[in-house]
Amino acid sequence: MTHMLPRLRVWTQRMTGDWMIWSGGIVLAILALLTITLGLNPPASAQTGSLLLRFQPPAPGGYLLGTDQLGRSMLARVLAGAPWSLGIALVATTIALAIGTPIGLIAAWVPGWPRRIIRMLVDTVIAFPSLVIAVTVIALLGRGFWPLAMVLGLATWPIAARVVYAEAMGIMKRDYVRAAVLAGVSGPLVVLAHVLPALRPTLMTMFAFTFADMLIAESALSFLGLGVPLSAPSWGNMLSDSREYMINAPWMLFVPAGAIVLAVVALNLVGDGVTARVRRSGGRA
């Protein structure tokens, strides 16, 4: 009986990690499908409504998620806001990893003063308050999809660089990487052929967690009036609109908040699942 416990533990860990990845991935796939099919081409009720239909509560036979203060369908608006909120978070995450990953790899591979300069640069950018950077860039470029995505991405890349640097330093101590260096393989080829593939699980996990953080950050900035234009039906703007009507129409708060929570939980499930699988397989996703 005792010899069965390690096998049972391994099986439980495998099932837990796979369940997280599958459950989170299915939710994200559904959100992506709804965003592409309905969010990019929302019905007219997402922007226009009737004051006679304002504050309609959720009802299966009527408006499934209710209406807002202008009589617009909350279901149509939350779908129309998905390309804004999810799109900004996706672009910001891509920018952060696209900048932070090569910088972290360079800092890990090149010793001496280049590494010190890169580390000083990363520490300097992290020292600046993100909110101050956001206000400054938006004041210069104006509100919109791309300015907000750039702000979030540029404020987050140092974190990605630090994670990649720390992981790459450990990978370069592995025997097969040292053997490639001793065999005379060029530095860029070692990084591309050995270090970067070993970073794949870390990058996948970091992408999921950063995506969730960017979604929350976009919603928070839009809620404060520092994000997308007020006319855009982003989830943060919908939360901001609900402040005055939380008592009379609480669904105006619950609908966008539920969408944010659902997406963040799904992303964290995927990230935790990949982490669990990496731990089980000894560093391979």
Structure description:
This protein is mostly helical and 285 residues long. The chain has one domain (4-44, 63-281): MetI-like (MetI-like fold), CATH 1.10.3720. It is 73% helix and 0% strand. The protein contains 10 helices and no strands.
Count of helical regions: 10
Mean pLDDT: 83
CATH topology value: MetI-like fold
Rg from C-alpha positions?
23 Å
Label this structure with key terms:
MetI-like fold; mainly alpha; 10 helices; disordered N terminus; 285 residues
Structure in a nutshell:
By secondary structure, the chain is an all-alpha fold. It contains ten helices and no strands.
Secondary structure elements and pairings:
Blueprint: H1 4-39, H2 74-109, H3 113-127, H4 130-141, H5 145-171, H6 175-182, H7 187-198, H8 200-223, H9 235-241, H10 251-281
Helix pairs in contact: 1-2, 1-10, 2-3, 2-5, 2-8, 3-5, 4-5, 5-8, 6-7, 8-9, 8-10, 9-10
